[in-house]
């Protein structure tokens, strides 16, 4: 609006329409400033230490807004010029000065508000730390219950503050670090509860003490990292070492090589050679890994050798071109640049394939959590020898998963995903030994309900991280294939409660924090269903089958809708969600057509069931389309429509989970011997067998969900019968 005023063209003749438009803009600026200043003044009243500075900035902003309104009041133009009333048309510099003052004062208000937010987070962290120290020292259940209740409330407050701050961070790298720290804090809150209870029940048990100390230590590190991110500082003035990956190295190397087209002299050949050496050193993480296939290892070594040769050729032509810039030499240089970049692209593709195929195989192999089940069983039996055997197997599994995370980091493609890989690696490194100490405690006290509950919590954390790895792998593949979006919503400015009630609300385009909390359970159910659908589609060897492709497409769209319920992902507004729901319903209708086609291939006695399910799918998709296209006015109606769309999408996905195994079964019957199943990974021969292999019906997905944390605190039962 200010830009519109400043940039308006001075014309000798001005229509009434133009004059009225300018006056409306000036009034709109003044009203907007008034609303903004009302919030600033409310913040000032609630924060005495900054009240004076904030009040001065608010007064300046209000004065500037009123000045702009006066200068754009064109009613005086009807009066004779002798009235000497100054307007935007007689003194444009006045508007420019007022605009500068306004922007300066508004910026000052925002900076002061930001300082208040940071102070709130630090104060909240200090409360949490102080209560944690009390929790560490308690010696009775009664005292523990009382202090943990206070601790839970403080953690909920900290979750609110840091969640809003995470959304406001512009630096995606910091945002990823904040998300990782908050995830640790949420998971550790439950771990701290059960680990402390176990220690109180078995005070002389060394493994229980080690287990509890590990949780406290990890929480303190996570709290410290949150403060580092919020204050943009590091302890002892250390510089943060950015993780170096093959992807980022190749990207920088290619930029330098392609820069030779513009400037032959901006870097030395030694610089390029050093950059390539660093990249090839990192490829040794793949070639030295025991989990890299022989085929991938050979290809990576061949491409590394080829990259050296291509660079040698490039440097040779480049040096000649520096001395003699002929047309032929420049053409040779272009060819050398293209060949070098092509080789690096092939190397990038090869390491990506090596890392993601390993990850997919490992995640599929460990999806039944057989080692964890065995530890629970042998722990309850008090079988120390068997527990020791399975803890060794868990340590081996941990090393596999840690190696997988290290390799995925190299191919993650973005800094936030690199940080997520590092967080996953740390989680496996820490949680593995914690599960072992919890299992040892249970084996020593096999009748202890608390020790059993404690082991369950740590096992759930492990399973949750494995589930998160499947999502991370999908994101890494999305980046590689160019399917990744960004998001931006500001949440963490201080919110004075009663003062904001009179402010005019903007038209809602995204779910706010409260709405996200309301719809979180439904979103989580949708997420779990996408995992189930993905598991079903992975069983099909023929991935080009029409039913599989439609199923995968619907799962991908449902996953985007789940991310929307968390305020993340590609769907940024409610309108995006409704559009996605329409496309999802269309994809479901196409799947129904494919089911009709399949019904023509099956026996007569199997056809009615398939056709019945297809008709049910068509009906549900039509209902979803009607809901998505229906108009909704106002915040409440829009949220109701969002809720209905997610609910109906969930119902379609539930049906899809039933349809896919049915279709798979019918195809196997009709195409026996055609190899519909994927071959099992080679290491399945060494599988641990403690019971029937079964996929868990539901995975626990731990995000720092404030509502779920509040429910933990509200509904916790701390004491069990003696």
UniProtKB/TrEMBL annotation:
Ranges that cross the membrane: none
UniProt GO BP: cell adhesion; Rho protein signal transduction
Chief place of localization: cytoplasm
Similarity-based family: Belongs to the vinculin/alpha-catenin family.
Domain of life assignment: Eukaryota
A Pfam cross-reference name: Vinculin
Name of the protein in question: Alpha-catulin
Subcellular location: Cytoplasm
A cellular-component GO term for this protein: cytoplasm
InterPro entries: Alpha-catenin/vinculin-like_sf, Alpha_catenin, CTNNAL1, Vinculin/catenin
Keywords (A to Z) from UniProt: Cytoplasm
Example of a GO MF term: actin filament binding
PANTHER family for this protein: ALPHA-CATULIN
């Amino acid at each position: 609006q200010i830009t519109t005023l400043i940039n308006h063209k001075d014309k000798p003749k001005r229509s009434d329409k133009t004059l009225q438009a300018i006056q409306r803009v000036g009034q709109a600026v003044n009203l907007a400033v008034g609303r903004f200043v009302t919030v600033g003044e409310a913040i000032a009243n609630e924060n005495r230490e900054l009240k004076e500075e904030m009040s001065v900035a608010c007064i300046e902003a209000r004065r500037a807004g009123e000045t702009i309104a006066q200068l754009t009041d064109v009613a005086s133009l009807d009066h004779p010029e002798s009235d000497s009333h100054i307007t935007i048309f007689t003194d444009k510099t006045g508007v420019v000065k007022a605009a500068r003052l306004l922007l300066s004062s508004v910026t000052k208000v925002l900076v002061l508000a930001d300082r208040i937010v940071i102070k709130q987070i630090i104060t909240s962290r200090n409360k949490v730390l102080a209560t944690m120290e009390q929790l560490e020292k308690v010696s009775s259940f009664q005292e523990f219950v009382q202090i943990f209740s206070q601790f839970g409330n403080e953690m909920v407050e900290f979750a609110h503050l840091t969640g809003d701050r995470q959304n406001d961070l512009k630096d995606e790298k910091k945002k990823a670090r904040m998300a990782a720290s908050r995830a640790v804090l949420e998971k550790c809150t439950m771990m701290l509860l059960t680990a402390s209870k176990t220690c109180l029940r078995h005070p002389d048990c060394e493994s229980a003490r080690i287990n509890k100390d590990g949780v406290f230590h990890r929480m303190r590190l996570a709290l410290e990292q949150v403060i580092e991110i919020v204050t943009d500082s590091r302890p002892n003035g250390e510089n943060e070492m950015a993780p170096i990956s093959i992807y980022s190295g190749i990207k920088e190397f290619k930029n330098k090589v392609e820069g030779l087209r513009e400037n032959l002299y901006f870097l030395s050949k030694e610089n390029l050679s050093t950059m390539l050496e660093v990249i090839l050193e990192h490829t040794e993480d793949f070639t030295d890994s025991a989990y890299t296939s022989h085929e991938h290892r050979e290809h990576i070594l061949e491409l590394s050798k080829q990259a050296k040769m291509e660079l040698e050729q490039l440097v040779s032509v480049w040096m000649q071109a520096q001395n003699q810039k002929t047309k032929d030499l420049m053409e040779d240089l272009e060819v050398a640049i293209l060949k070098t970049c092509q080789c690096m692209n092939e190397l990038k593709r090869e390491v990506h394939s090596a890392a993601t195929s390993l990850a997919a195989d490992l995640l599929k192999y460990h999806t039944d959590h057989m080692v964890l089940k065995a530890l629970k069983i042998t722990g309850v039996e008090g079988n120390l020898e068997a527990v020791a055997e399975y803890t060794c197997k868990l340590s081996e599994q941990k090393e596999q998963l840690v190696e997988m995370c290290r390799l995925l980091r190299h191919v993650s493609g973005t800094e936030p995903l690199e940080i997520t890989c590092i967080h996953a690696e740390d989680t496996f490194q820490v949680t593995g030994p914690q599960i072992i100490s919890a299992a040892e405690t249970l084996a020593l006290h096999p009748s202890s309900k608390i020790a059993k509950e404690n082991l369950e919590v740590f096992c759930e954390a492990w399973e949750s991280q494995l589930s998160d790895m499947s999502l991370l792998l999908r994101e890494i593949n999305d980046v590689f294939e160019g399917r990744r979006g960004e998001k931006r919503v500001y949440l963490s400015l201080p919110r004075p409660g009663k003062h904001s009630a009179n402010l005019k609300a903007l038209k809602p385009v995204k779910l706010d924090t409260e709405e996200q909390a309301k719809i979180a359970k439904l979103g989580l159910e949708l997420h779990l269903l996408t995992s189930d659908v993905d598991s079903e589609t992975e069983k099909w060897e023929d991935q080009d089958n029409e039913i599989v492709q439609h199923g995968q497409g619907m799962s991908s769209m449902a996953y985007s809708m789940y991310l929307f319920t968390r305020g993340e992902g590609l769907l940024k507004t409610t309108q995006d969600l409704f559009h996605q729901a329409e496309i999802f319903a269309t994809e479901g209708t196409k799947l129904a057509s494919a089911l009709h086609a399949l019904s023509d291939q099956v026996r007569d006695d199997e056809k009615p069931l398939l056709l019945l399910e297809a008709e049910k799918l068509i009906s549900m998709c039509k209902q979803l389309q009607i809901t998505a296209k229906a108009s909704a006015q106002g915040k409440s109606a829009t949220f109701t429509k969002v809720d209905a769309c997610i609910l109906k999408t969930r119902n379609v996905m539930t049906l899809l989970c039933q349809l896919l195994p049915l279709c798979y079964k019918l195809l196997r019957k009709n195409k026996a011997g055609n190899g519909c199943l994927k071959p099992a990974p080679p290491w399945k021969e060494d599988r641990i067998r403690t019971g029937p292999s079964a996929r868990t019906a539901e995975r626990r997905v731990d995000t720092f969900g404030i509502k779920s944390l509040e429910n933990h605190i509200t509904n916790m039962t701390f004491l069990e019968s003696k």
